[in-house]
Write the structure tokens for this entry.
Amino acid sequence: MFGLYFSRYLSDKNVLDAKDAGEVADLGYPGYIDGLVEKNLLKRDEAEKHLRGFMEENGFSEGDVAILGGGRFEDIVPLFISFDANEAVAGNIEAFKKDSGLTDAQMEELKKDGEMDWVLPGYVRKDPPLYARFVNVAIENFSRLISDRLVLKKSHVVKKRDFEHLSCQSLKGEHHIFFGIAGDENGLRAVAGAFVRREFTEMEKKVYDCVCELINSILGLFASELSVEGIRLEIDLPYNYTGKSIASNGELYCLPVALEGAEIEFLLSFDCDMEIM
């Protein structure tokens, strides 16, 4: 997938137009660089200069570039969105202390007596490996159902996000997983059109219905996968919103996803309370 990502970078930076940049996009690294040179699209030193810019902008190492070239979603997704297990547990221990009105000394006593081992499993619900699994399922199935030419961009974490259009749904039970697809009219129409294999020329209700059905399919697959492991999650009702904001009392992850001719954003939150305003 290296060629796909680097070609998008070159076209976004107006180094090459999308058609030229995409001519050898199926090649990996360093094959894509060689292809650009062979087709006289860029000189080698120019291509390598832009490669350094691509790596710097994304914070990629040479190993990360090799991962992109490998094309495995489970390896690629963590380059753009990741969850810190240690940070999550530490944060919940702190929240437990605050909610319980315990002092640092009392917390130390609980740890010393081994009572924390009994208290925390019931209190700490955050599970970063599970969140990563969900994102993998979402990306893999989005690629299968919508476009295998998608390009992820670096995620960022916020408390509140304004949006133009949003379709969303949640899984609730032993965990609370919120998943939304946000974007402008062009973005949501592109997703809906790809899902049902027809073109939408305006932002009609059917567009929202199609995007919600896509989200429902992804959530259903994940809930089924976890049910085999004894983790029960139920799918909440779908919702659509226009011109509002979404806020989380925890982390709200914004993961941009570029498609051919459109860009959307995955909005994700885990084991937090959400509010639309």
